[in-house]
């Protein structure tokens, strides 16, 4: 499933390529025909992202909600686009560019109230200007779950996925099994800041990049796939060389270095608020 940086990148690109235009909207697959008819010919005002959700605001007051899920993907074209490929749920055609949407988890029209309620169920998004770390901190402090679990909980921090989870905890030397309530406010603020930084890099380069250019010896734009990450799916720690451990946490595989990220049971000096 795409992580938050990819969704914000899509919102940024679609604002650039389609906002302010009267667009042709169809559903070649047929599963979104009625919704497509309601917004066909309307002007797209703006696109916003919250976590892993996209919302397209139209001049007629309609809101188009898209959640890609595991299998959804966008295909970009020049206008006019080629014949639809596969099961295209949504096709949008603009003046110079167009896109197809295949296999989303959600593609639906919402009222403003429904979008508000959906957003209220989501956690704070580090990439949004209105993201509030204090709100997220209160939820973290009230939980008995491991911080590695909470990072995948979209009602606490929206947009963080499995790769960013392992990488940010490694950078901060926090074991994923550490009870979230044991984090100090300083540690949480560092976590929030680091997520913001990494996600912003992800938006800029349209890929997850955690390694620093100085360590790799090449700019981020030229890093090879195996050079971009520090801990996720690695055999050995990029910092100390110790073996990387992996296990299932919150139904996804998490990665950590037992030397750089001591398990809380072995570390009696876990910071407390």
TrEMBL record:
**Enzyme class, broadest EC rank:** lyase
Name the Gene Ontology biological process terms: base-excision repair
Q: Which UniProt keywords apply?
A: DNA damage, DNA repair, DNA-binding, Glycosidase, Hydrolase, Lyase, Multifunctional enzyme
Q: State a single Gene Ontology molecular function.
A: zinc ion binding
Its EC number(s) = 4.2.99.18
Residue stretches making up the Formamidopyrimidine-DNA glycosylase catalytic domain: 2-108
Task: Name one matching Pfam family.
Answer: H2TH
**Residue intervals of the Formamidopyrimidine-DNA glycosylase H2TH DNA-binding domain:** 122-214
Give the family per the record. Belongs to the FPG family.
Q: What is this protein called?
A: DNA-(apurinic or apyrimidinic site) lyase
Organism of derivation: Aeoliella straminimaris
């Amino acid at each position: 499933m795409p992580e938050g940086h990819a969704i914000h990148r899509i919102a940024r690109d679609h604002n650039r390529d389609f906002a302010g235009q009267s667009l042709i909207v169809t559903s070649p697959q047929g599963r979104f025909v009625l919704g497509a008819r309601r917004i066909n010919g309307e002007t797209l005002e703006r696109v916003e992202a919250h976590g892993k959700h996209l919302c397209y605001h139209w001049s007629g007051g309609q809101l188009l909600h898209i959640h890609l899920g595991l299998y959804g993907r966008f295909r970009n074209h020049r206008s006019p686009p080629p014949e639809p490929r596969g099961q295209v749920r949504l096709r949008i055609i603009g003046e110079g560019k167009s896109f197809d949407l295949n296999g989303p988890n959600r593609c639906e029209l919402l009222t403003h109230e429904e979008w508000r309620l959906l957003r209220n169920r989501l956690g704070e998004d580090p990439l949004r200007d209105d993201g509030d770390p204090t709100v997220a901190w209160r939820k973290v402090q009230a939980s008995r779950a491991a911080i590695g679990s909470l990072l995948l909980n979209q009602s606490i921090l929206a947009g963080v996925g499995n790769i960013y989870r392992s990488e940010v905890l490694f950078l901060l030397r926090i074991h994923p099994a550490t009870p979230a309530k044991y984090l100090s406010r300083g540690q949480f603020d560092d976590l929030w800041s680091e997520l913001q930084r990494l996600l912003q890099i992800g938006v800029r380069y349209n890929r997850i990049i955690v390694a620093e250019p100085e360590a790799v010896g090449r700019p981020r734009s030229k890093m090879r796939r195996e050079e971009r990450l520090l801990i996720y799916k690695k055999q050995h720690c990029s910092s100390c060389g110790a073996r990387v451990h992996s296990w299932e946490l919150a139904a996804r595989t998490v990665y950590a270095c037992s030397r750089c990220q001591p398990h809380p049971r072995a570390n009696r000096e876990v910071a407390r608020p």
